[in-house]
Amino acid sequence: MYGKGDLMRVCEDENNTALFSSKGEYGWDGWLGTFFSNEPKHGLTFLLGVQQTGIGKAGTLTRKNTR
Known about the structure:
By secondary structure, this protein is mostly beta strands. It has no helices and 5 strands. It has a 5-stranded antiparallel sheet, with no helix packed on it.
């Protein structure tokens, strides 16, 4: 399960996440296809930027809120 803090998602319970994550992982799911994740427990940082046409059509790259 993810909470929100400072406009970023924060993993509060890794047992209820759709993707791999551990408690304390935080990041940003940008509306237009950008993605940022920092996993302090494992020392990993992931950045993804997607150039696309048709602004606002991020499709499957945007994580859906499961609450």
